[in-house]
Write a structure and sequence with these properties.
alpha/beta, 3-stranded antiparallel sheet, 20 helices, Rossmann fold, formyl-coa transferase, domain 3, 7-stranded mixed sheet
Length: 427
């Protein structure tokens, strides 16, 4: 069977979901995908389904890990320890003979393992280097820990836009953002491969969870960029006391549905001003001390039962209640500096998204001249290419604006065009 990418070799140095999905898509079309895993821990995604089943968030499948299969079919697994010099040498040798290198490592991790584009480009100038990050390559939050539930979903204002005032959205399904980001990166990789056929030169392709989340909601975000208005500027707002009652009920419902959840450090918490803070802490032991200090509950650190995830799971309901009652005592503005470095994101409004320093500095918006509106801002293409970046060459056309121009390019004469108009073939 003939496949579109037969002969293309991809080094997939990633884990979890977004980049593995990109690599799987390339593998589906015939690429030889080599998935790199740590020889001790493997890819965390191998254990994700089990955790979801235990928490009641996924349907049981004791005999087959359908989640791992879905994201990693059409790949070969190779174990390499990137913390060792010999492991990095193996990777560099693989890259020398590869067409595509993919990762979701953050910038300081790429530098640590000597896998940044500048290094790999010297080893193989034809390499297409693809990376997914949380919030972009530049800006104050470029190295924050991020997941699709935080960067793509929560911070990009998706819950805000699909909720009613006073009724926060806290539901979420794994991979919603990762799958879209994986498609976007695969699209960028294909463009880069096409350009390499013409130039012989590779390039870097970057996609961020945050930017792609805004791109998905571009109907509303582009409106806020033009008008400066948010949903709350035209939707009726319920009384504050009704909002508080709604939050109290939401907290009870969350406790009910999260009865099987084992970590009080993961999930949504509400603030005094009705904001939702979404925490995705997949290494709870690592963040337990920091989380307790940030929330002012250092007394919990004296109970050594809580030093492990298993110990905290035994008292999950109690701990969840303690933190829920704490978060609702302060506004988001008060919590924000206290939670620095913890993997979470606030549900943002449209106005907050379009004025977010991180979004602006990481290139999520593009500014250009419009013939009627003058200088405007819109959402930039989420696929960032180092050598051949996307750009805006013209605004959206007026109705039939280029009919004559295009017909002339196709060899029709002005007499032909006049005849077409008389016959009603063109406007």
């Amino acid at each position: 069977m003939s496949t579109a990418l037969k002969g293309i070799r991809v080094i997939d140095c990633s884990q979890v979901a977004a980049v593995p999905m990109c690599a799987r898509i390339l593998g589906d079309f015939g690429a030889d995908v080599i998935h790199i895993e740590n020889p001790t821990t493997g890819d965390y995604w191998r254990n994700f389904l089990k955790a979801q089943v235990e928490s009641g968030q996924a349907c049981p499948s004791p005999d087959f890990d359908y989640n791992w299969e879905n994201y990693n079919r059409n790949k070969r697994s190779v174990t390499v320890d990137l913390t060792k010099d010999s492991g990095r040498a193996i990777m560099h040798n693989m890259v020398k003979q590869a067409d595509v290198f993919l990762s979701n490592l953050r910038s300081f991790e790429l530098e640590k393992f000597k896998l940044e584009y500048e290094t790999l480009n010297k080893i193989n100038p034809r390499i297409i280097w693809g990376n997914v990050n949380g919030y972009g390559k530049t800006g104050p939050d470029k190295d924050l820990p991020a997941y699709d539930a935080t960067a793509y979903w929560t911070r990009a204002a998706i819950p805000h836009m699909i909720s009613m005032p006073g009724m926060p959205v806290f539901g979420y399904r794994p991979g919603i953002g990762d799958n879209v980001v994986g498609l976007a990166l695969a699209y960028g990789i294909m463009q880069a491969l096409y350009l390499r056929e013409k130039t012989g030169v590779g390039q870097a392709v970057d996609v961020s969870l945050y930017h792609t989340g805004m791109f998905q909601m571009s109907f509303d975000v582009s409106g806020a960029l033009i008008t400066g208005l948010d949903f709350n500027d035209w939707r009726s707002q319920p009384p504050q006391e009704l909002i508080q009652q709604s939050l109290a009920l939401m907290m009870q419902l969350m406790t009910f549905f999260n009865i099987k959840v084992t970590s009080p450090l993961t999930g949504a918490y509400f603030t005094k001003d009705g904001r939702t803070l979404m925490f995705v802490i997949l290494q709870p032991d690592r963040y337990w001390v920091k989380f307790c200090k940030a929330t002012g509950h250092e007394e919990l650190l004296q109970n050594h039962k809580y030093d492990t995830m298993e110990g905290r799971a035994e008292d999950y309901t109690k701990l969840r209640q303690i933190f829920a009652e704490t978060f609702i005592t302060k506004t988001f503005a008060e919590w924000h500096p206290l939670l620095e470095g913890i993997p979470y994101a606030p549900t943002q409004t449209l106005k907050e998204v379009v004025n977010d320093t991180q979004a602006i500095e990481s290139g999520c918006f593009v500014e250009y001249e419009h013939p009627q509106k003058g200088k405007i801002r819109q959402i930039a293409n989420p696929v960032m290419m180092s050598n051949d970046p996307a750009n805006v060459r013209m605004p959206a056309p007026e109705f039939g604006q280029h009919t004559e121009e295009v017909l002339l390019e196709y060899g029709y004469s002005w007499e032909d065009i006049a005849k077409f108009k008389d016959e009603g073939v063109i406007a």
